[in-house]
Design goal:
- By secondary structure, this protein is mainly α.
- The chain has a single domain (6-134), classed as ACP-like (Non-ribosomal Peptide Synthetase Peptidyl Carrier Protein, Chain A, Orthogonal Bundle).
- 54% of the residues lie in helices and 0% in strands.
- The chain contains 7 helices and no strands.
- The protein has helices spanning 6-21, 42-56, 62-70, 75-78, 87-96, 102-105, 120-134.
- Helix 1 packs across helix 2 and helix 1 (6-21) crosses helix 7.
- It is globular and about 40 Å long.
- The termini are close together.
Length: 135
């Protein structure tokens, strides 16, 4: 079985997202946020994950995606009692979403808004990492 490279994962994810959302391919850039820029709904994310499995053979469940993003950090450590992402949570997010600005978001990112920062490129990187795991 062939490993999924980051480049091939990005191309596939861009095509899948564009097709699923009926967008032109040039609208789906690696920097595009799925939920804010592209208008993805929760059901669309499930569709993307299904299509990724069908096309690339990389199975990622929605719950697993959340676990990857949160890095296995318990909710009470990932977030503050006020519902904001903690410094520990932001450090983890920086690993899965390298584009985020930890300093600008410190104490200001509601945990419920994390996915608003999740990009096409972030999804492709996770797909590539999982594709490499199965080879």
């Amino acid at each position: 079985m062939t490993a999924v490279t980051e480049s091939s994962a990005l191309t596939s994810v861009q095509n899948i997202v564009a097709d699923a959302l009926a967008l032109d391919l040039d609208e789906v850039t690696p920097e595009s946020t799925l939920f804010v820029d592209l208008g993805t709904e929760s059901i669309d994310l499930l569709d993307f994950l299904f299509r990724i499995e069908q096309e690339l053979g990389v199975k990622i469940q929605a719950a697993q995606l959340s676990e990857i993003i949160q890095g296995g950090i318990p909710d009470e450590e990932f977030g503050t009692p006020e519902g904001m992402v903690s410094s520990v949570g932001l450090a983890q997010l920086k690993k899965t979403m390298p584009q985020i600005d930890e300093e600008a978001l410190a104490g200001k990112l509601p945990a419920e808004d994390v996915m608003n920062h999740f990009t096409v490129g972030n999804l492709a990187a996770i797909v590539a990492a999982h594709g490499a795991d199965r080879s």
